[in-house]
């Protein structure tokens, strides 16, 4: 489902992750929660407390889709890679959701901000700072980005070698050889990614063109519509190792 959604976005020209755009809502509202709560705590004015509570409810509601889109982005753009900034963001996002949930229910009847509530508002404010820092590590830190790319690539490659080999034996081995470039029914695929063009279609050899040929029928080769995007990625990863 998520893959189809990103494909739809790509078809209209949007190729970026969704999570970064969404983070402005819960982050900005959580900061507003803290500032209005602080004003209410220091001035003892109920109107500031009410505004802080309203911002808290909106921050909690907006945090839920933001976390969901973050998970989709992680799977789609990072291949589910286990890297520190993403795991850190998951932990902090869970903490923020917990703090906001407690504040939503704890502040329903109180006219003024208590010291305990103020501590939770401040903790949420610090969590937002931490989330922003880790997000910056993913986007701007070159070393982190390089490690992220390596980790995602290693995980994808391992999955391709294991799962892709099984898929190849089930779906492709009847027509293609994996250990030779010789023609069986279709061309052998050994060393395919060392060539400039695919033997039958003449398309440039690339992951995208291979996935395209798997999804759409070409000449005598049938389409493999039943394969999921994850399976096609695994199969492509395996063929790259031949």
Shape: rod-shaped
User: What kind of sheet is the major sheet?
Assistant: none
The helix fraction, in percent, is 55-70%
DSSP helical segment count? 9
The CA-CA distance between the termini, in Å, is 30 Å
What count of domains describes the coordinates?
A: 2
Q: Tell me the structural class.
A: mainly alpha
Supply the key terms.
242 residues, mainly alpha, 2 domains, 9 helices
Detailed description of the structure:
The protein is mostly helical and 242 residues long. The chain has two domains: 2-140, no CATH class; 156-240, Sandwich (Immunoglobulin-like), CATH 2.60.40. Helices cover 69% and strands 0% of the residues. The chain contains nine helices and no strands. The chain has helices at residues 2-11, 19-22, 24-43, 46-78, 84-106, 115-140, 142-172, 207-215, 229-240. The longest helix is centred in the first third of the chain and has 33 residues, at 46-78. It starts with a helix and ends with a helix.
What's the structural blueprint in terms of helices and strands?
Elements: H1 2-11, H2 19-22, H3 24-43, H4 46-78, H5 84-106, H6 115-140, H7 142-172, H8 207-215, H9 229-240
């Amino acid at each position: 489902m998520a893959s189809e959604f990103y494909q739809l976005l790509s078809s209209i020209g949007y190729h970026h992750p969704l999570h970064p755009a969404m983070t402005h809502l819960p982050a900005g509202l959580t900061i507003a929660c803290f500032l209005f709560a602080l004003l209410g705590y220091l001035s003892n004015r109920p109107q500031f407390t009410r505004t802080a509570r309203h911002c808290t409810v909106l921050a909690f509601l907006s945090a839920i889709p933001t976390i969901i889109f973050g998970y989709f982005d992680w799977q789609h753009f990072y291949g589910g890679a286990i890297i520190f900034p993403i795991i850190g963001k998951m932990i902090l996002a869970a903490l923020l959701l917990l703090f906001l949930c407690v504040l939503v229910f704890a502040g329903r009847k109180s006219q003024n901000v208590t010291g305990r509530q103020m501590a939770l508002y401040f903790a949420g404010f610090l969590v937002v700072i931490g989330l922003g820092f880790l997000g910056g590590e993913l986007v701007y830190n070159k070393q982190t980005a390089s490690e992220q790319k390596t980790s995602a690539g290693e995980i994808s490659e391992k999955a391709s070698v294991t799962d892709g080999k099984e898929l190849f034996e089930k779906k492709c081995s009847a027509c293609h050889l994996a250990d030779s470039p010789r023609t069986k029914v279709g061309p052998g695929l050994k060393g395919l990614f060392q060539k400039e063009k695919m033997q039958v279609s003449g398309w440039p050899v690339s992951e995208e063109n291979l996935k395209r040929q798997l999804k759409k029928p070409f000449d005598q080769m049938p389409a493999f519509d039943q394969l999921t995007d994850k399976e096609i990625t695994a199969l492509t990863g395996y063929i790259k190792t031949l």
